[in-house]
Design goal:
Elements: H1 2-6, H2 11-27, E1 32-34, E2 41-43, H3 47-56, H4 60-68, E3 69-74, E4 77-82, H5 85-114, H6 142-172, H7 186-193, H8 199-208, H9 214-225, E5 231-233, E6 238-243, E7 246-251, H10 255-259, H11 265-272, H12 277-290, H13 311-327, H14 350-360, H15 362-371, E8 375-378, H16 379-386, H17 392-395, H18 399-409, E9 417-419, E10 423-426, H19 431-538, H20 546-589, H21 595-647, H22 652-699, H23 708-763
Antiparallel strand pairs: 1-2, 3-4, 5-6, 6-7, 8-10, 9-10
Length: about 775
């Protein structure tokens, strides 16, 4: 099973093979029973018959009928003939033999398919023919007759190649040769194959007769072949044939039955009707072979039915096919010698061995080999094989001259070779010197070639390595540059992220510090205001009326509110100045890109800055003057009021009216200043935002569907108009504040007069 697996026979086919082998074994166990007085029999339906039917896949009844009867066609009628015991046994054995033979051929075909034999016709195949040799026993039957006939034909092939063709080649090539005589077995072959009075022809003829027996066959041989020197009739049914290996006596008992093809058409039809695929294949092969003509140079006949072809005819046809195939090959022979007849090891019978050597023609082969020329080579092949060992001028001549020059150069003795018409013939061992010299020369050439090819390979390897290194450097450089670009991008992204984070942290810290500073400033300023309010409160007199203390507290709160607003206005002014500086810096960054627009913007910005500074200076001067006057008046008024709280019994009503009149204009002035400051902040913010937006539109940082130059000129005109209006209102505010200051001066003069009268009254 392992071997079948190796040659790729499927498991299903293996099971079928084993089933066929088992069926062959069970066929030997099939028995028959007599059913009438004429010795007719039929198969017994027992374990053997049932197993055979089951294994080959047919019906038990059909198998029983095929083994017990035979269908014959007489005219247009079909007659069923019952078989006798001997005929039934022969039919059973023929079926078993045919199944076994077809199974063997099928396995050989599967092995050849697995090895792909025959697919590639290269002419380089080797075929081995293994045959035992002649068989000569005490009783030689039909099997030994066929085997010895095949050996006779193979011996003829041996003689033809080693004696006939060998010596014919010497003579045809024109060399000096003495012909060696040998024993030719062609007459013995004619005894077997001659028509119509050959052994095989007479056997087939007698097998076709219904009343033919082995005795009639023996008598017919004696009648027709006694004149042949290779045939001799014996007593009874025996005859002897003088083969090349010796005389063999054959017993004709069973010759006719064994020669007849006992596998009838009924058995083939039975196999074709089986359910298993192998019996169907066997039946189709049998029918196909029956339609093929039996070929051969000595046998020419058309197609015949399998029932008309005898075993000897089939054997002869197969033998001629084998011989045709052998004729197309270059044969080599191995002769096996039988050492003794007892099949004992280490024992040689001299007479038996010598007889085999003489019969096989080995002595003649040795004689021809000793005196002949076993090594031969054509002039072209010899010159082509050894011509390179000579000089160039000799090697360029014709092959015969080159061959002769080679022989002279290597000092080969004339008796050791002969020059034919087409070939050179050498005795044994003479070609070895040339082969040794050729091998040494080729070895040296190959050594030089190997060194040179190794040098070329090393140079190629160096160049390849250099190219690979260059390519690798390019690839690695490209990969490194890509990695560096990625790292650089990541680094820049990290820097941007760090910048954003650090800027956010710095802005947060700045906002925190700014808020803390504002908080501290507010606390300090509140503390200062509260301290100033506390100092003013220390001047209060306990006996003064409640309305006078309320007036002092109102003045202090107004002063604090005024200071807070002034500080807020200053802070707003500083912020606006910083924003103006930032805008100025941004405008300077785009000077190189838009020189003409920047020159215009610069001039407009300078004019705008001068105007803003003039307004700011005017506003700051007004605030400062107002703050100084208010502080002085408030301090004087506080002192005067405190003093009057003790000594205003006669002028209190007048002073009260005056002070109330003086406080109302002061509140009006503060409200005017506050409105101007708020308007200044709002206008500055609006103009700054508009100018910043137009600059961004001009530089491309922002998108808007407007003309920045025209809008900037319009903004300048609006700024000029507002500046004029603001200047007029600022001058009007100054005039109002100046009037308020004069009214307060009148009050001061009244107070001074009152203070002088009070001081004089105290002195008095």
């Amino acid at each position: 099973m392992e071997a079948l697996d190796i040659v790729h026979v499927s498991k299903e086919n293996q099971e079928s093979v084993f089933a066929m082998l088992t069926a062959v074994l069970w066929l030997g166990n099939v028995t028959f029973t007599v059913i009438d007085n004429e010795n007719h029999v039929e198969a017994v339906v027992d374990e053997g018959l049932i197993n055979v039917a089951k294994l080959i896949g047919c019906n038990v009844g059909e198998l029983k009928i095929a083994l017990s009867t035979r269908k014959m066609k007489v005219g247009n009628d079909n007659i069923v003939q019952k078989l006798t015991l001997s005929q039934a046994i022969d039919t059973r054995d023929a079926l078993a033999k045919s199944i076994y033979a077809c199974l063997f051929e099928w396995l050989v075909e599967q092995v050849n398919k697995s090895l792909a034999v025959g697919k590639r016709r290269t002419g380089r195949s080797i075929s081995i023919l293994d045959i035992y040799g002649f068989e000569s026993f005490d009783r030689n039957s039909f099997e030994q007759f066929c085997i010895n006939y095949a050996n006779e034909r193979l011996q003829q092939h041996f003689n033809r190649h080693l004696f006939k063709l060998e010596q014919e080649e010497y003579i045809q090539d024109g060399i000096d040769w003495t012909k060696v005589e040998f024993e030719d077995n062609q007459d013995c072959l004619n005894l077997f194959e001659k028509k119509p009075l050959g052994l095989l022809s007479l056997l087939d003829e007698e097998s076709t007769f219904p009343n033919g027996t082995d005795l009639t066959f023996a008598n017919k041989l004696k009648q027709h072949l006694n004149s042949n020197s290779y045939f001799r009739g014996e007593r009874g049914k025996a005859f002897s044939v003088h083969h090349y290996a010796g005389e063999v006596i054959y017993d004709t008992t069973g010759f006719l039955e064994k020669n007849r093809d006992l596998l009838h058409l009924d058995s083939i039809q039975l196999l074709s009707s089986c359910t298993c695929h192998l019996p169907q294949i066997f039946a189709s092969n049998m029918l196909a072979q029956s339609e093929k003509p039996v070929g051969g140079p000595l046998y020419k006949s058309g197609g015949a039915d399998s029932q008309k072809l005898s075993v000897a005819t089939k054997f002869k046809g197969q033998l001629f096919q084998l011989m045709q195939r052998l004729e197309k090959t270059t044969p080599h022979f191995i002769r096996c010698i039988k050492p003794n007849d007892f099949q004992s090891p280490g024992m040689y019978e001299q007479g038996l061995v010598l007889q085999q050597l003489r019969c096989c023609g080995v002595l003649e082969v040795v004689r021809i080999s000793r005196s002949g020329f076993p090594t031969r080579m054509s002039h072209q092949k010899f010159a082509r094989r050894y011509g390179f060992l000579l000089l160039e001028n000799v090697a360029s001549q014709d092959p015969l001259s080159v061959s002769v020059a080679i022989l002279h150069q290597f000092n080969i003795l004339p008796e050791m070779y002969q020059v034919g018409y087409t070939k050179l013939f050498f005795r044994t061992g003479q070609i070895g010197v040339l082969e040794d010299t050729r091998n040494r020369t080729l070895h040296g050439i190959l050594r030089v070639q190997s060194c040179f090819r190794g040098y070329q390979a090393r140079q190629y390897l160096k160049e390849l390595r250099r190219g690979i290194a260059t390519l690798q450097s390019f690839v690695r450089g490209e990969k490194t540059r890509k990695k560096y670009a990625v790292l650089l991008q990541r680094h820049r992204a990290a820097m941007v992220m760090q910048k954003q984070i650090k800027g956010r942290i710095a802005r947060k810290q700045f906002v925190d510090v700014h808020d803390a500073s504002i908080l501290i400033q507010s606390v300090i300023r509140g503390w200062l205001v509260r301290r100033c309010s506390g100092d003013v409160g220390l001047l209060k007199v306990g006996g003064r009326k409640g309305n006078e203390s309320d007036e002092v507290l109102v003045k202090s709160s107004v002063l604090a509110e005024l200071q807070r607003r002034v500080l807020k206005a200053e802070a707003a002014l500083r912020e606006k100045e910083e924003e103006n500086d930032i805008l100025h810096q941004r405008l300077q960054q785009y000077e190189n890109r838009w020189s003409e627009y920047e020159l215009k913007m610069k001039s407009m910005e300078e004019v705008w800055q001068k105007q803003m500074r003039s307004l700011q200076s005017s506003l700051s001067i007004a605030k400062k003057s107002l703050a100084i006057d208010d502080s002085e008046r408030n301090s004087d008024a506080s002192v005067n009021v405190n003093d009057d709280r003790d000594y205003s019994w006669d002028t209190g009503s007048n002073l009260k009216g005056q002070e109330s009149n003086g406080l109302r204009p002061m509140s009006a002035g503060l409200s005017v200043i506050s409105r101007l400051a708020e308007e200044f902040e709002q206008r500055s913010q609006v103009f700054g935002d508009d100018a910043k937006f137009l600059v961004e539109v001009k530089s491309g940082q922002a998108e808007a569907s407007l003309n920045p130059d025209r809008e900037l000129r319009r903004l300048k005109q609006m700024f000029e108009a507002w500046k004029k209006d603001y200047g007029v209102r600022l001058r009007e505010t100054k005039v109002i504040l100046h009037k308020l200051g004069n009214e307060e001066g009148t009050v001061d003069r009244v107070r001074k007069k009152w203070w002088g009268r009070r001081n004089s009254s105290r002195i008095n």
